[in-house]
Write a structure and sequence with these properties.
Number of helices: 6
Order of helices and strands: EHEHEHEEEEEHEEHH
Bound molecules: zinc ion
Length: about 220
């Protein structure tokens, strides 16, 4: 019998459309079907908290004179949600925001690797991802692009390419992705075009490679 895992809660800001939420939900359903697990999904709009934290962090980030306006540090953002009790260890959090997401090493050094989405872990129990459709808007295959990035971040949420090897490049920590052709395909740094990267993932024609499937299966087994 398949494992029963914690419920997934998809939370989004009021500025995210129903269609965008559906792309992420559809990715989640495909993944869980692939692994044959029972699950529960709740979807809720958290206008009260998500929009407020988004705006607050965005304001601070813009104040740093960044190359891209409208950016947000996803660790800081998800940490804000954890402190407010929105993200808890009782569920997997999937948060969809309408700001660029980034990872900053410190106030000066921004790593723009994660502008589409990011993964967050607190202790060994609280896991959440953030996904942003901002950079994918206006493309003909926008929905497919959002879904593809959903597969990538959900893969991380379920332990694929979790970066524990601690590889560094040019003095910066990078997530060690599988390097195979699947939705976890990732360059070490952001490519000139996120569309190029996403289309490369789509061309692979599969959600996860054997390595990623094994990592996810191992993880699900112990839940
Ligand atoms: Zn990744
Ligand atoms: Zn893989």
């Amino acid at each position: 019998m398949p494992d029963l895992i914690k419920p997934f809660e998809i939370m989004h800001s009021a500025r995210i459309s129903r269609e965008e939420v559906d792309c992420v939900r559809s990715a989640l359903e495909d993944v869980l079907e692939l692994f044959g697990v029972y699950y529960q999904t709740n979807i809720c709009e958290r206008r009260d908290l998500i929009d407020t934290i988004e705006d607050e962090i965005s304001k601070n980030m813009t104040g740093l004179g960044l190359e891209y306006g409208n950016q947000m540090d996803y660790f800081e953002f998800l940490e804000g949600l954890r402190k407010k009790g929105v993200l808890t260890e009782k569920k997997y959090g999937i948060v969809i925001v309408d700001k660029d997401l980034c990872w900053k090493d410190n106030k000066e050094n921004l790593d723009p690797l994660f502008i589409i989405g990011g993964y967050y872990e607190y202790g060994n129990y609280l896991r959440a991802i953030a996904i942003s459709p901002v950079r994918l808007k206006g493309y003909a295959d926008e929905k497919e692009l959002i879904k593809t990035n959903g597969f990538h971040e959900i893969g991380h949420l379920l332990n694929a390419a979790d970066g524990r090897t601690g590889k560094t490049l040019e003095g910066r920590k990078v997530i060690d992705h599988c390097g195979n052709e699947d939705m976890m395909t990732q360059y070490d740094f952001i490519p000139d075009s996120v569309i190029e990267l996403t289309e490369k993932r789509l061309e692979s024609g599969k959600i996860y490679c054997d390595t990623c499937i094994r990592e996810i299966k191992d993880y699900l087994k112990c839940k």
